[in-house]
Amino acid sequence: MKNVLTIATKEIYTYFVSPIAYFVLVIFGGLSGFFFYAILQRAIVRQELSTAVIQVLFRNYVSVILLFFAPAVTMRLFAEEKRSGTIELLRTSPVKDIEIVLGKFCASFVLYLTMLATTLVYPFLILPFGKVDIGQIISAYTGMVLLGATFLSFGLMISSMTRNQIVSALTSFGILLVFWIIGSFADRAGSLSRFFKYLSLIEHLNDFTRGVIVVKDVVYYLSFTFICVFFTIKSVESAKWK
Length: 242
Hints:
The protein is mainly α. The chain has one domain (2-239). The chain is built from twelve helices and no strands. It has helices at 2-17, 19-45, 52-74, 76-84, 87-92, 97-117, 121-126, 134-159, 165-181, 193-199, 203-209, 215-239. The longest helix has 27 residues, at 19-45. The chain is globular, with a radius of gyration of 19 Å. The chain starts with a helix and ends with a helix.
């Protein structure tokens, strides 16, 4: 655990001494704020100011923004170290592969939670003027945390398989996009309809934003994350033999 914390701390420090963290936080905050304002204005006109504003924001906008930002956050974690050769220092140090992977994952997850924390002000802005369901808010944020872990673990896995940050980011985005839209083909898939819907990343977020935490959705996101972390560890291990 000590090694995991050391690696995570080092990666977080690297994020914040470079423009990466500030760029991500500013752009993410600006985009989410803009969309929140647009949804809020529409809700005020319709006199429907409630937790539904957060539901629409997360499901239709913030989750889509995350498709772009998760690959940006994870693309350098292994790819840059491979390119610069610093990965060899980690491999020869008394640190296990699983500790390296978990440390880097935790660092990206902390940055993501910081990004998500910038949206916490939105429910409080609604509270004095509309109905806010605390349970639904907690459920929505739980879904976003799990979705973020899924995206980051996948981006980390792709980063461990390449030396090029751009290749890592574009590959992660492209494949995550496929998992995102695959549910839209479910109605035309016949007997495979349920299978495609289960694979869809967004389908599992819908219940969270409605205030319902369903076990199958939690299992899906946690399983996806675990599998990606597992294959990242195997990718790091296999690189030792190349």
